[in-house]
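re: that chain from earlier
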Amino acid sequence: MRPVIAQAAALGLLAAALPAAAQEFDPVTLDLPALVECRTDVPAYTSFALWLAGEPDAAGTIGWRAVDSGNPFLSQYEMDKPLTAFGMETKTIVFTSSGPMAVLDGLNAPDFAKKLGIEPMLATPQKFLSEKVVSEKTETAESVTLATRISLNVSTVETHPGKVLAGCSYVLEIK
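^ sequence. v structure.
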């Protein structure tokens, strides 16, 4: 299954599991730095992601334009107004299958991860990957168990040489 189709299917399952109020998103309420820096919750991210993927010209509504990331696992947008996240400014954001990441210039990934208190999982000259779990919990309601995991990530990727991707992963698993 293609990543975009798989992501849409997963978001559909997530939408069914979330309260109706979390499914409605008003772009005026978007706090992008909070989403990128893991300062919000899974329903807040999911309602935004569903809105962005499902509304016609949602990206244009908030001053974004989709651009080719060169990577089938990343959806990339250029923003009219810069995003300030982790004390850095960027006009480029990418979305993985589980969350938003700021695309940052002029950083050394291992040093930046260390500054954020994140331990590396993989550190080679070709690839850097780090993760710090911010929140992890399991809740059961009406015979459905929801496991949520929020993690802060810093990484590099071949398709974005000289750039550091820093952001949040919001995962909701239905058991």
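The chain has a mean pLDDT of 88.
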